[in-house]
Amino acid sequence: MATQPVDASLEMGHSLPPQKRRSGAKLKLRNTLIGWTFILPNFIGFAVLTMIPIITLFYMSLTNWNIFGQSNWMGLDNYGRLFHDSSFHTAMRNTLFYAAIHIPLTLAASLGLAILLNRKMRGVALFRTVAFFPFITSIVAIAAVWNMMFSPELGVINQFLMWLGIENPPGWTTSTDWSMPAILIVQTWRFMGYYMLLFLAGLQTVPTELHEAARMDGAGAWQRFRNVTMPCLRPVTFFVTVMCTINALRVFDLVLVMTEGGPGQSTLVLTQYIWQLAFVRQPSNFGYAAAVSVVLFAMSMVVTIIQFVVNKRREA
After folding, report:
1. Residue 148 has what pLDDT?
2. Which pLDDT value is given to residue 8?
3. Which terminus, N or C, of the chain has the lesser number of Cβ atoms within 10 Å?
4. Alpha-carbon distance 316 to 299, whole Å?
5. What is the C-alpha end-to-end distance of the chain, expressed in Å?
6. CA distance 157 to 166
7. 63 DSSP β-pair partners
8. Closest by CA position to 249, among listed 141, 96, 105, 136
9. Residue 144, CA atoms < 13 Å, CB-side half-sphere
10. Domains (range + CATH), the chain
11. Angle made by CA atoms 193, 196, 198, in degrees to the nearest 5
12. pLDDT mean by block of 10 residues, the chain; 316 residues
């Protein structure tokens, strides 16, 4: 029996009744409005709390506004001033030194702790909680306790070092040479529990079959870690590295409470220098502080982009 040819216009829906076409358009518009209803609050929050302040920051960096009176346009004079500001250079060096030590040290400590607590043993949940507890503890309490422990004469750390036979233990927060290592020790101890949880979640997704197959092939513990565990942890490691880098570049609270940037300027970092320019020094200069903030923002963006590019090449 011969079949009638089907009109192409019917297949493409061009011959639908006008009422059905209108109902389809209304349904599409309705779905679009529902989608915008879900994402619009996030866009509004991003615009009000992030985008507009960033645009304002860039504008302020081109003025000499001091929060009182009108702002005068200065162009790039604030950025030119940075080249001759010794305090800015010191804060930049301290920030880069802190980040260069803190990032690998924290990654190694958190990953090692995650591997240690990824085993089935009695009380493992308690140990995980104890490791995470410093991250949610008040920074003021943390700084007060560690300052007492770092006390050159009465601190428990130096008492222990003298018990080991070290006659002249470090001065820690009272020494220009040891104040930054003290900050690094406390900050690593504070954050390693948080990143440990991220690594722990990644470790629990590694297929056990891969480890069993590698073990049957004669691979040792280090070979299994390097060739099985680390490749499976690459997404988590990338995320932790980016977050740790951003947190390292914007370190502020612990430095302010423990050392206030001292002794001298041995622990002065960019975020604290920005705070001093805007709120401590007189007369205050929000424009120059904004210029330093733009430099810090650019540093964070460049480092993050480099990390994304390197991670993409490794995955290719």
Report:
1. 92
2. 47
3. N
4. 26
5. 56
6. 11
7. 73
8. 96
9. 5
10. 18-60 (no CATH), 85-315 (1.10.3720.10)
11. 125
12. 47 56 75 84 87 89 81 87 93 94 94 89 85 90 92 90 89 91 94 93 87 83 86 90 92 91 91 91 84 92 89 78
3-state SS string for the chain: CCCCCCCHHHHCCCCCCHHHHHHHHHHHHHHHHHHHHHHHHHHHHHHHHHHHHHHHHHHHCCECCCCCCCCCECCCHHHHHHCCCHHHHHHHHHHHHHHHHHHHHHHHHHHHHHHHCCCCCCCHHHHHHHHHHHHHCCHHHHHHHHHHHCCCCCCHHHHHHHHCCCCCCCCHHHCCCCHHHHHHHHHHHHHHHHHHHHHHHHHCCCCHHHHHHHHHCCCCHHHHHHHHHHHHCHHHHHHHHHHHHHHHHCCCHHHHHHCCCCCCCCCCCHHHHHHHHHHHCCCCCHHHHHHHHHHHHHHHHHHHHHHHHHHHHHHC
Task: Output the pLDDT for position 1.
Answer: 44
Amino acid found at 96: L
Cβ-proximal residues to 90 (8 Å cutoff; 6+ apart), any chain: 265, 268
